[in-house]
């Protein structure tokens, strides 16, 4: 029964299988090709002068997050990616990290940014603690409902060491650090930030901020370039 092993039918099947295998190989190759998922390299990088900055100020690589306290993806990024970045690169002195405010969610974003800038101005050491707790307070459901109020900010501030809440309250009421908030907004415009979080490694904008391998790769490339 199986004698006629070179039947045209069998050859057609074999050729088809070879073509399918080649197509699969081609698709895999394209998907693995870094060129097809290239990060956006710009000819400039955001100035971090006057920005809250974590890590060694002499670290060779700068990572900037354009973020919004009202944005759920920023909360998720801060909880899932940021700690890895800190332990792999900030704590090892290779990266310094800055946060720039984005006001995509209106008045609440503005209030949170104003508060964060005021905390930073008052005591730079207290900034990252405040930053972390404020994101933690973002409700995981109904984040669109109003939750950023002066009341909430003062409650957060009280839970962080070394913040003078009376001073913070008057700074918020007087829009004391509005200039800093506006400076951030100018950077958002200058770098054409459309999504939050947007992560930049020196002058490279990361396509998918949740792709930690891409972040690592961009940092390693930047380290080699130094
Ligand atoms: Ca700022």
Write down the secondary-structure element order.
Answer: HEEEHHEHHHHHEEH
Mean pLDDT: 91
**Order of strands side by side in the largest beta sheet?**
1-6-5-3-4-2
By secondary-structure content and strand pairing, the structural class works out as alpha+beta
The CATH architecture of the largest domain: 3-Layer(aba) Sandwich
How far do the termini sit from each other? 70 Å
- Content of β-strand: 5-15%
Overall form: elongated
* Biggest sheet record: 6 strands, mixed
Low-confidence stretches: none
List the ions, cofactors and other small molecules found in this model: calcium ion
Name the CATH homologous superfamily of the largest domain.
Answer: Glutaredoxin
Rg calculated over all Cα atoms: 24 Å
Helix share bin: 40-55%
CATH topology of the largest domain: Glutaredoxin
Query: How many discrete structural domains?
Result: 2
The total strand number stands at: 6
Number of helices: 9
CATH C-level category of the largest domain: Alpha Beta
């Amino acid at each position: 029964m199986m004698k006629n092993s070179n039947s045209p039918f069998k050859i057609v099947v074999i050729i088809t299988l070879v073509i399918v295998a080649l197509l699969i190989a081609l698709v895999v190759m394209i998907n693995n090709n870094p060129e097809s998922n290239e990060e956006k390299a710009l000819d400039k990088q955001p100035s971090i002068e006057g920005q809250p900055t974590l890590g060694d100020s002499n670290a060779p690589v700068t990572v900037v997050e354009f973020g919004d306290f009202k944005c759920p993806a920023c909360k998720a990024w801060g909880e899932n990616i940021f700690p890895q970045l800190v332990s792999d690169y900030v704590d090892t002195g290779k990266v310094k990290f800055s946060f720039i405010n984005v006001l995509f969610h209106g008045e609440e974003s503005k209030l949170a940014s104003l508060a964060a800038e005021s905390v930073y101005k008052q005591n730079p050491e207290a900034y990252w603690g405040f930053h972390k707790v404020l994101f933690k307070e973002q409700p995981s459901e109904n984040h669109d409902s109003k939750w950023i109020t002066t009341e909430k900010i003062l409650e957060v501030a009280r839970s962080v060491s070394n913040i003078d809440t009376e001073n913070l309250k008057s700074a918020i009421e007087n829009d004391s650090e509005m200039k800093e908030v506006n400076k951030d907004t100018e950077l958002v415009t200058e770098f054409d930030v459309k999504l939050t979080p947007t992560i930049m490694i020196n002058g490279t904008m990361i396509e998918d901020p949740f792709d930690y391998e891409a972040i690592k790769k961009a940092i390693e490339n930047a380290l080699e370039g130094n």
